[in-house]
Specification:
There is one protein chain. This protein is an alpha+beta fold and 426 residues long. It folds into two domains: 36-53 and 295-425, Jelly Rolls (Sandwich), CATH 2.60.120; 87-249, no CATH class. Helix content is 28%, strand content 28%. The chain has helices spanning 2-19, 22-29, 66-82, 146-159, 196-226, 240-247, 251-258, 268-283, and strands at 36-51, 91-94, 97-100, 127-130, 133-136, 173-175, 189-192, 232-233, 238-239, 296-297, 304-307, 312-328, 344-353, 360-363, 367-370, 375-383, 393-402, 408-425. Strands 10, 11, 13, 14, 15 and 17 form a six-stranded antiparallel beta sheet that branches. α3 packs antiparallel against α8 (268-283) and α5 (196-226) packs across α6 (240-247). The longest helix is centred in the middle third of the chain and has 31 residues, at 196-226.
């Protein structure tokens, strides 16, 4: 009975289609249920630039495992550049902290010249010094004291020099002995005796000067012994003290000290494992994963929205046309002919139920693109039947991740974006 009814309905449909004009038939058929829909969203850009996603001045740890990504970027530099251009003898570890040997400087010690007699360097014309004591023609003339004033201004607390040049000398004493007054001053003259505080300040200065010399001597001895004669580099052309002087203060040694992981025990496999763990973290499609937050929307005003139907699967394709450019840290423009840095742009789609715009219901697999030259990205993702709820509205956006890098300022100029959706009811 059911088969007979179906045959009758089919015959009626064929007859009606035959007698209707082609235009009428098209209009009538357009209202019949369709099993497949395809939509496209496209947008071109002139000034959309993607920047690194990572650490910044206000958020040093960044928004996405910035420390680990930086380590991954630095790991190959560690084994290929830093370690070969430094030497084990240059670095020591004290209290679990690496440092270059013999870097304790003497800058904290007093370093003003204390060699000027009684710290007086610029006497007035009518004053003269005899046996370390000042004599002047008048009791109104106080010798200028540039050296002492410098000492006072820079090292009051450390040397106890809490005085100024007005209180360097006691009250002048009148001298009328021709044998005591200097010939250049004549008789009578006035004798200027230094105050107790002045003498104390001078003694402290001398002591500090000796301490400075001892510190400098000890520091030099440390540098002489830091690297032994058997510690060599450059085919044994640099050994011992020469090695220390030319290598240990190099940028490579400083980078090793600054790095929390770079040391002579690290190997190539460590770098591979570190990189793979981060790529795996980025590549996961788990929407609540640690690296899900790494990805930033390329353009919040560019998206595709649709209302899901029952028994519907959706295939999503995204296309990106872009041009990368990079500037080495410390430079204002790209170096002509410089090879691209070994970094990648990661992109993916995220699908949100508009009722919960903060948590994606789906993340596509990651597309990875090397930043060698201008490039286009074409990738696809598929949401199977049952992933979407009939009657719910969904939003699809394009997201990216560009790792924060220590040596380059990386940027991606976006030329165009496209999302194509193929929705099929099964």
């Amino acid at each position: 009975m059911e088969v007979k009814r179906f045959k009758i309905l089919s015959l009626v449909f064929i007859i009606l289609s035959f007698f209707m004009s082609s235009s009428e038939a098209d209009n009538w058929i357009s209202y019949l249920p369709r099993q497949q829909d395809m939509d496209t969203r496209f947008k071109s850009y002139t000034n959309l630039v993607l920047e690194e996603v990572g650490a910044n001045a206000t958020n040093p740890e960044g928004v996405c495992k910035a420390k680990e990504f930086r380590q991954a970027a630095d790991c190959y530099k560690c084994i290929l550049e830093w370690l070969p251009n430094c030497h084990r003898c240059c670095i020591e570890t004290i209290n679990n902290k690496k440092q270059i040997k013999c870097q304790n400087t003497c800058e904290s010690l007093f370093n003003t010249d204390c060699s000027c007699e009684t710290l007086v360097s610029l006497p007035p014309d009518n004053c003269s010094q005899k046996d370390g004591i000042w004599y002047c023609k008048s009791d109104k003339e106080i010798p200028q004291d540039v050296c002492l004033n410098t000492l006072i201004e820079t090292k009051k607390s450390s040397l106890g020099c809490n005085l100024d040049s007005r209180f360097v000398f006691e009250k002048p004493v009148l001298i009328q002995d021709v044998n005591e007054c200097p010939v250049t001053v004549g008789v009578p003259c006035y004798k200027y005796l230094p105050t107790f505080n002045y003498q104390k300040c001078q003694a402290n200065c001398r002591s500090a000067e000796n301490e400075m010399k001892n510190c400098q001597n000890n520091l030099q001895q440390c540098k002489n012994k830091a690297c032994s004669a058997s510690d060599c580099m450059s085919g044994k052309k640099l050994c011992g003290q020469n090695l220390y002087n030319q290598i240990c203060n190099s940028k490579s040694c400083q980078e090793i000290v600054a790095s929390s992981f770079c040391n002579w025990d690290i190997d190539h496999q460590k770098c591979v494992d570190l990189t793979n763990s981060l790529v795996d973290c980025l590549a996961t499609t788990q929407t609540n994963s640690e690296c899900a937050r790494c990805f930033k929307e390329i353009d919040s005003s560019f998206y595709y929205e649709f209302i899901a139907k029952s028994r519907q699967s959706v295939t999503l394709l995204w296309e990106i046309s872009s041009t990368p450019y990079w500037v080495r840290t410390g430079f204002t423009k790209q170096i002509e002919g410089e090879l691209a840095p070994a970094y990648f742009l990661y992109t993916r789609l995220k699908v949100f139920d508009v009722e919960d715009p903060n948590t994606p219901i789906y993340m596509s697999p990651v597309h990875q693109k090397y930043l060698g030259a201008a490039f286009s990205i074409f990738s696809a993702a598929h949401l199977e039947v049952g992933k979407l709820k009939a009657g719910h509205k969904y939003r699809v956006g394009v997201y990216y991740f560009l790792a924060n890098t220590p040596d380059y300022d990386l940027k991606i100029k976006i030329n165009s974006l496209r999302i194509t959706a193929i929705r099929i009811r099964e």
